[in-house]
Amino acid sequence: MNTIKNLVAVITLMALTASASALGLRLEESTPIKYFTKEDWSQAKQVAKTALEQGKPDETFDWHNESTGHSGSYTVLRQVEIDGRSCRDLLIKHQAGPANARGDYRFCQMQSGEWKTMGRAPSN
């Protein structure tokens, strides 16, 4: 469940980043999460989990909700080990309604097996 909570946190961060660059637009009107349905969230979370658990560098995992037209992708940018933990940097993209958002985030697997976001991924 922490993976889902962390993913929501990352998506929220992406939303804030996207809205900051959208001059003159209100936060809730300029981010995909405003338009996500429960089915969108379910698909996005499942694909994110697969990307984190099975993804290799340069591999992209897509989701698309046929009923809403909303979509997203998770691309594994890097796989690194930090302090003995397996970590992956993901490029996360989402589109819903008129809004698009993207961002690079680092996730590390904790001893419990859960993935936790470590914030923005460092740029190379």
From TrEMBL:
The record places domain Surface antigen at 37-117
Question: Which superkingdom does the taxonomy of this entry point to?
Answer: Bacteria
One Pfam family matching this protein: 17kDa_Anti_2
- By its UniProt entry, which InterPro entries does this protein fall under? Anti_2
Signal sequence span is: 1-22
Keywords recorded for this protein, A-Z: Signal
Protein name as annotated: Surface antigen domain-containing protein
